[in-house]
């Protein structure tokens, strides 16, 4: 999508969405589809350059928390229907997700989660080491206790999703202002009344913060506490493989968070560095790969010596309990927020777009998202940590 066509910033809007990633684009699409006309999406860079910039996004409904299962499952269906609504090819590959479990404790926890998932319509199941190896021939069964697998999960391309939503939104009249940084928010009483940007001020009826790892900064401009911290995550691509790699699930060694899956004519490797400090640095450091190779030598030995040709670093937006922040501010009644998805934002974006549409229209969302209010950390409410974090 050409940025230059979307540079003009109007002086007023009913809804200003801050952030042009997958969340902002999904929200813009769902609002426009529901008939909301006067919408501006403000993005300081090009669309999808923040956390949504990753080359391949996993999509799954395998979670431990019922609310995350529901958001993931509804989004899976939306991604399956994406060619028809909003109408774009997103290179969806339904290869399944395979969690490799190496302790009885992990096995017991995942068995509990699979039962909850099955009750919510997710076709996940526990499988033995041999079946896991059949699904993913790279896997070594040594030390593997059991695995969890759902054939309905898979991956697709975040950039295509962002553009698909954004183009449909633009066709419906949404203004998309790229290369437009938010510099401040004006409030009066319990309302946000204006969004100050590098291209001018926008008087507004409602603001939606969908700024990913930068959401804490946007919240602070309005006096709203959004406890989101940025953490770098890195991945790498192998050289083209001959013979080609078999078609494998999105495979995760749960103990280490190391994961791998098909990517074009090779494989993609990823792993969360437990020593990574908070910050906005997205420099890719090839030395990081040694962490992945160390795990691979034990769990998938053939991967350990594969040559890589490229890599990428992006930001996760982490909250204290690894669950998202979704809701309406208690202090500012027209400030809505979606942030802190802790690595599962892309896979929940379609459902979250629906939820924000309904919050804006004051309709009942398809599921109760009140447990995801940012206020949960202040009020000492019960925090439900998400166990299936990668």
UniProtKB/TrEMBL annotation:
Matches recorded under Gene3D superfamilies: D-Amino Acid Oxidase, subunit A, domain 2, FAD/NAD(P)-binding domain
Official protein name in the record: FAD-binding oxidoreductase
All residue ranges annotated as the FAD dependent oxidoreductase domain in the record: 14-359
Classification via PANTHER family: FAD-DEPENDENT OXIDOREDUCTASE DOMAIN-CONTAINING PROTEIN 1, SARCOSINE DEHYDROGENASE-RELATED
Keywords of the record: Oxidoreductase
InterPro entries for this protein: FAD-dep_OxRdtase, FAD/NAD-bd_sf
Keyword Oxidoreductase: yes
Organism ancestry: Bacteria, Bacillati, Actinomycetota, Actinomycetes, Kitasatosporales
Organism this protein belongs to: Streptomyces ureilyticus
Protein's UniProt keywords contain Oxidoreductase: yes
């Amino acid at each position: 999508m050409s940025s230059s066509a979307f540079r003009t910033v109007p002086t007023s809007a009913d809804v200003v969405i801050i952030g042009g990633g997958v969340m902002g684009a999904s929200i813009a699409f769902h609002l426009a589809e529901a008939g909301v006309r006067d919408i501006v999406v403000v993005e300081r860079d090009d669309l999808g350059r923040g956390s949504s910039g990753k080359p391949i996004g996993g999509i799954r409904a395998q979670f431990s928390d019922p609310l995350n299962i529901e958001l993931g499952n509804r989004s899976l269906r939306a991604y399956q229907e994406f060619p028809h609504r909003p109408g774009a090819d997103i290179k969806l590959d339904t290869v399944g997700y395979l969690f490799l479990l190496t302790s009885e404790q992990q096995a017991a926890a995942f068995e509990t989660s699979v039962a909850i998932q099955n009750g919510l319509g997710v076709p996940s199941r526990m499988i033995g080491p041999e079946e896991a190896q059949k699904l993913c021939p790279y896997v070594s069964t040594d030390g593997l206790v059991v695995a969890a697998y759902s054939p309905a999960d898979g991956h697709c391309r975040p950039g295509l999703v962002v553009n698909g939503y954004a183009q449909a939104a633009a066709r419906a009249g949404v203004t998309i202002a790229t290369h437009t940084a938010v510099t401040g928010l004006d409030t009066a009483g319990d309302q946000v009344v204006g969004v100050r940007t590098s291209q001018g001020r926008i008087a507004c009826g409602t603001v939606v913060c969908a700024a990913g790892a930068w959401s804490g900064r946007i919240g602070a401009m309005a006096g709203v506490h959004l406890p989101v911290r940025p953490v770098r995550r890195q991945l790498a691509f192998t050289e083209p493989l001959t013979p080609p790699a078999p078609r494998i699930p999105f495979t995760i060694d749960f103990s280490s968070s190391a994961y791998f899956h098909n990517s074009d004519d090779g494989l993609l490797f990823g792993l969360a560095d437990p020593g990574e400090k908070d910050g906005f640095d997205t420099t890719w450091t090839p030395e990081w790969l040694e962490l992945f190779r160390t795990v691979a030598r034990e769990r998938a030995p053939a991967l350990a010596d594969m040559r890589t040709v490229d890599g990428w670093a992006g930001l996760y937006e982490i909250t204290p309990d690894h669950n998202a922040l979704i809701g309406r501010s208690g202090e500012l009644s027209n400030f809505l927020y979606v942030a802190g998805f802790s690595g599962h934002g892309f896979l929940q974006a379609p459902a979250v777009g629906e939820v924000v549409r309904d919050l804006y229209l004051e309709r009942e969302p398809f599921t109760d998202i009140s447990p995801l209010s940012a206020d949960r950390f202040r009020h000492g409410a019960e925090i439900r940590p998400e166990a299936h974090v990668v």
